[in-house]
User: Which sequence fits this backbone?
């Protein structure tokens, strides 16, 4: 943003942003993992957490979809696997993760969303953090029943560029079919079709769930009831991170 563009920003917006960042200073930078099956609410809670902590939100799914939109080699390699509901190779995922992790916005903490998804990824994440004198502070496991997440994915609408998600029943945008922040149209994700959802779910149970064992013994894991409404899930996370309800 150049100085002319900064002058054009309304005062109220600058004050709000100033107070948001000032409030964040009371919290030390944290590394938080949001873990759970498709549709369990990782992205929804991750956006709010990122906003309240002024950290960065690393959703490997959003990063991969960006690569696909931009038509990069990496995106082209990931596209078919994602549409079918499989897992993209650890090698490709680690490349995009590392690139994002090194950006300045990630210096004030990171919310990892949908990563790690294999034990290999969990080990690599520990290595990456150890090399930066850091470690995982919290892993939130979003426990949810399969019927509930089917209903959530079927009604989900997303803002493609930011990954912000809404729901036709549970999380309505201010204007139907439009993103609250940009006013741009909302779309349905390619992998929110019934066959892909079934594959994503079985991939989660077979390959991703075992990662929980990796975190079980080091005292960072909290399992939450993600079947509850958005605000209740948020209160559970907030009580752990900010000691408040
Ligand atoms: P990714 O984008 O990570 O998808 P996912 O894990 O399948 O999870 P979703 O984004 O579908 O769900 P969410 O938990 O974020 O739920 P949301 O908050 O949107 O990954 C996509 C693909 O990329 C993977 O299948 C894989 O191919 C590849 N990939 C990504 N990371 C990878 C990795 N590390 N390794 C290998 N491959 C990788 O909520 C869902 C809906 O419910 C929304 O409509 C929302 O408004 C609503 N909602 C949320 N919470 C509630 C609530 N409490 N009550 C009612 N409604 C709610
Ligand atoms: Mg998501």
Assistant:
């Amino acid at each position: 943003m150049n100085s002319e563009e900064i002058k054009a920003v309304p005062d109220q917006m600058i004050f709000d942003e100033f107070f948001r960042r000032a409030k964040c200073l009371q919290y030390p930078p944290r590394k938080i993992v949001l873990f759970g099956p498709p549709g369990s609410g990782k992205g929804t809670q991750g956006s709010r957490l990122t906003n309240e902590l002024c950290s960065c939100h690393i959703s490997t799914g959003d990063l991969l979809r960006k690569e696909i939109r931009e038509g990069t080699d990496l995106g082209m390699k990931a596209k078919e696997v994602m549409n079918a509901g499989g897992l993209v190779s650890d090698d490709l995922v680690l490349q995009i993760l590392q690139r994002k992790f090194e950006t300045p916005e990630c210096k004030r903490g990171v919310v990892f969303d949908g990563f790690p998804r294999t034990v290999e990824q969990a080990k690599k994440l520990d290595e990456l953090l150890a090399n930066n004198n850091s470690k995982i502070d919290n892993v939130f496991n979003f426990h949810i029943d399969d019927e509930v997440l089917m209903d959530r994915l079927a009604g989900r609408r997303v803002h493609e560029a930011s990954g912000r998600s809404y729901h036709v029943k549970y999380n309505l945008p201010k204007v139907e079919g439009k993103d609250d922040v940009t006013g741009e149209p909302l779309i349905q994700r390619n992998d929110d079709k019934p066959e892909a959802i079934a594959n994503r779910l079985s991939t989660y149970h077979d390959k991703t769930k075992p990662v929980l064992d990796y975190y079980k013994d080091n005292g960072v894991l909290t399992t939450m009831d993600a079947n509850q409404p958005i605000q209740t899930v948020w209160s559970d996370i907030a009580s752990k991170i900010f000691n408040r309800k």
Observations:
- Residues 194-208 form the longest helix (15 residues).
- The pocket of magnesium ion (ligand 2) is lined by residues 42-43, 59, 61, 114 (CB under 6 Å).
- Residues 146 and 201 are 8 Å apart (CA to CA).
- The chain is about 50% helix and 10% strand.
